[in-house]
Amino acid sequence: MTGKRTRYSAEFKAKVALEALRGELTTVQLAAKHGIHHTMVGEWKRQAVEGMAAVFSGQAAAQETAKSTEAEVEKLHAKIGQLLVERGFFGQGVRTMSLKRRRQMIEPEHPRLSIVRQCELVSISRSGFYRYPAGESPLNLELMRLIDAQFLETPWYGSRQMARHLRREGYTVGRKRMRRLMARMGLVPIYQRPRTTMPHPEHRVFPYLLRELVIDRPNQVWCADLTYIPMRRGFLYLVAVMDWATRKVLSWRVSNTMDVEFCLDALEEALAHHGRPEIFNTDQGSQFTSPRFTGVLQRAGVRVSMDGRGRWMDNVFIERLWRSLKYECVYLHAFETGSEMRAGLTKWIGYYNAGRPHSALAGQTPDEVYKADAMTRLAA
């Protein structure tokens, strides 16, 4: 393939990133709207968030200074040999970057290094530079919806068993496709695994603190979890913070990318409106093991607890929330946009908190139990 790589302007990237930050459309919808690959949407959104942080951290000024010296650097490169140019290319640490980031480092118009040589230097094939994987097909999106529904019924299904189930439903699918789609959705079967691999090798994993602990009052233990939300085209991710004892949903956020930012937003809203718990429990997902997330909790004086690897039952109450939410709301409505989904979730979660009696709460709603305890403490 001899075509040139498309170069997008900063204005175009900013426009797409702002739409992604609004969260109205899925990454698939944004990619189709602007004629780009869906991985670019997530990458530009991440760059926009980092860029906004740089504005307030003083890094923007440094970046401007660096830009002013680019012309001088280019003149210097013109005077030195090919070996030094290649060393400079390596000096940017490209080998430690992901495949996507390494691909972006290649400069098709570089005056001294050919595309073939640049691909060799960053350890990717030339075809790997030109080829961008296609977005999920309508069939795969339909399979992901079916996987999601079945996983609620049988959360112990791995890729092999899920493939068998869908073949019985009339779909010609293999285990490799199931493994890839389940990984894309963030689904992990609940069987016990050895704790030898962590979601992020550089993040600290905290011990599980809830074993044999009697949890009988509000704000004693909060928990949080992420789930996949299917839409008519594509999918979004939902995070929620719940009070363990009362089952009350304290805050929630929706995002088109599975990053730490929207999890932090939900956590900070819960802390701002409901005080702080004694213990905060999550799974070992990289969003929750992120130092940014755990740092907020530690600075607030909250003890951090994390489920054992693959231990679905350790966070069972919020898993039951997902089941109810999907069967009573998500699967009954083919949401088209992020605003439609937010409106639907706002209505259902309001009903769940204030109007849906729980047998575990003696027929009371989460709001009633949570508020009754607050009134009792005030009276005392």
UniProtKB/TrEMBL annotation:
Pfam families: HTH_21 (PF13276), HTH_Tnp_1 (PF01527), rve (PF00665), rve_2 (PF13333). SUPFAM superfamilies: Ribonuclease H-like, TrpR-like. InterPro entries: HTH-like_dom, Integrase_cat-core, RNaseH-like_sf, RNaseH_sf, Transpos_IS3, Transposase_8, Transposase_IS3/IS150/IS904, Trp_repressor/repl_initiator. Residues 59-86 form a coiled coil. Signal peptide: none annotated. Keywords: Coiled coil. It comes from the Bacteria. Residues 214-374 form the Integrase catalytic domain. PANTHER family: TRANSPOSASE INSF FOR INSERTION SEQUENCE IS3B-RELATED, TRANSPOSASE INSO FOR INSERTION SEQUENCE ELEMENT IS911B-RELATED. This is IS3 family transposase. It comes from Teichococcus vastitatis. The lineage of its organism: Bacteria, Pseudomonadati, Pseudomonadota, Alphaproteobacteria, Acetobacterales.
